Amino acid sequence: MAEKKTTTKKAAETKEVKAPAAKKSTTTKKATVKAEAKVAVNAENIGFKAGDVYQALAAAEKAMDVKAIAKAAKITEEETLLGLGWLFKEGKLLGTEDNKIVLA
Q1: Contact at 8 Å (CB) between 100 and 60?
Q2: Per-residue pLDDT tens for 38-52?
């Protein structure tokens, strides 16, 4: 009896070997969002910011721009502008030709 040769390949030989799948990370990425400072726009808060601006200008005893006032008063530029508006309306500030503010 002659043995019959099989022409079919074994399933294991024809199966392609795949690289192991990369492990999925279970941690989620948090989006970095620049925190915006929220300014409470009401008469009381703006009045306090006006006081901060006035004190910074009085302590400096010189004309200052908005950024310098904000830095000296330790408040944001938006809050500084609100305070400046209040003080300008009351007539306590003067603007100079080079965009600086000084006490009246």
Answers
A1: no
A2: 778 888 999 999 999
